[in-house]
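Case study 2.
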Amino acid sequence: MLSRKGDSAPGRLRHRLTLETATSTPDGAGGATLSWNTVASLWAEIVPLKTDEREVAEGLGDVTLHRITIRKRDDISAGDRFTLGARVFRIKSMTDAQEDGRYFACVCEEEGAS
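Prediction:
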């Protein structure tokens, strides 16, 4: 978690992530196609919390929970995702952990992490 000094803690928000939101488009056959749209590029702190194995397709896959801290925004919600290169972090929940309206701490799930 960020120190109470927040912005004066140099290097904490050091990862440049892309925030993406999903758009569902009907496919004409009763289903839908999901596409991801870029909302913003932002700085974040990424802290791994827990790694676990989970059944994925035909076998086991690694799933890692991370706490990703960003400056507070109004255009983000659970279900959105962050990307960092090929890495994808699905946002499970968010909180204003310091309750000062400056930062969000997001619990995110990354599949395929090792």
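The chain has one domain: 14-111.
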